Amino acid sequence: MLPSAWRTPAHVRTSEEVAARIPDGARVASSNRLAPLLTGRTTVSLVCFGTGPAPAAPTGLPARLPDWVISDRHDPTVKTPCPAAGTARMLDLYRAHGYRQLTEEDGIVLLKRPPDTP
């Protein structure tokens, strides 16, 4: 096996560093590939899930708001279960409802819920 196979790619290291900013016990909406970094210590749902008449095109935020939102624009699983357009739509909804973007590094976006939201 080549030594290059033993190295963690930069994008994976960035994903781990950004996900590490989310505290234990938080509720998180995550893109599919980032969820495994969080499921052992947070409650995770998929970022593309919201409310509305068409599940594939949510028009509102989920009933139980996440504390954090983390999404990877370079996630190769963007077709299923969260198409890129659905994820982008939900990120826009979160921002429109006051979620603050803390960072975007190498396509990894991290949003935090405003403190005055129930």
Q: Would you write up a description of this structure?
A:
- This protein is of the alpha/beta class.
- Helix content is 19%, strand content 20%.
- It contains two helices and five strands.
- Strands 2-1-3-5-4 form a five-stranded mixed sheet, with helices on both faces.
- Strand 4 (100-105) and strand 5 (108-112) form a beta hairpin.
- It is globular, with a radius of gyration of 14 Å.
Can you give keywords for this protein?
118 residues, five-stranded mixed sheet, 2 helices
What's the arrangement of secondary structure elements?
Layout: H1 10-19, E1 27-30, E2 43-46, E3 68-72, H2 84-96, E4 100-105, E5 108-112
Parallel strand pairs: 1-2, 1-3
Antiparallel strand pairs: 3-5, 4-5
